[in-house]
Amino acid sequence: MNRREGEAVNRHFGSEKWHQAAAFYVRMQVFVLECGIGLTEEFDMDDHDKTNYAVIYDGNKAVATGRYTQIDVETIRPGRIAVLKDYRNRGLGQQIIEELEKESLERGIKQSIIHGELTAAAFYEKLGYKKCSEEYLEDGVPCVTLKKQLVQ
To answer: What contacts 4, CB < 8 A, 6 or more positions away?
Structure first.
């Protein structure tokens, strides 16, 4: 496979400890160090041994991640989507969302709901999500809720 040096090529979805550490590395870099979110806010009760994470690796380096929380038998809520600064604008965020949706479909999930920052709403709309709320504040950040039917 031809690829540019540093281009991410390997994806993994799972809950293994080494893989969870990789997801936490990306989130630490992006949310805690870059965005200034507190450790106790970023790493929450949804980060446990059974949580599955989607991570994209460039060699052994984790460069993008995301997870989802299952809200009910038919609905997930993707979140903690993060891409390292040097790897942005390469479609990796989209690949993470697609991986979370693919894994969800295999588990019989039919709907995805995202609480997205207002600045990211256009990104999610490009992926087929539709706004279904007015703007609101979540952790002091303007957000909207977006939905997507995974099964037609």
So the answer is: none
Q: Strand pairing partners for 106?
A: none
Structure tokens at 85: 């600064």
Distances from the Cα of 34 to the Cα of 1, 30, 82, 85, 90, angstroms:
33, 5, 11, 9, 19
* Residue type at position 72: D
Residue 11 CA to residue 65 CA, distance in Å, equals: 10
Q: What angle do CA 124, 130, 131 make, to 5 degrees?
A: 95
Residues 128 and 126: their CA atoms lie apart, in Å, by 6
Distance CA 126, CA 139 (A): 25
Place of tokens 């995805």: 112
What are the tens digits of pLDDT across the range 109-133? 999 999 998 999 999 999 999 999 9
pLDDT tens string 1-25: 334 544 547 999 999 999 999 999 9
Percentage of the chain surpassing pLDDT 90? 86
Q: Give the number of other Cβ atoms within 10 Å of residue 119's Cβ.
A: 10
CA distances from 25 to 40, 93, 122, 147 (A): 15, 16, 26, 28
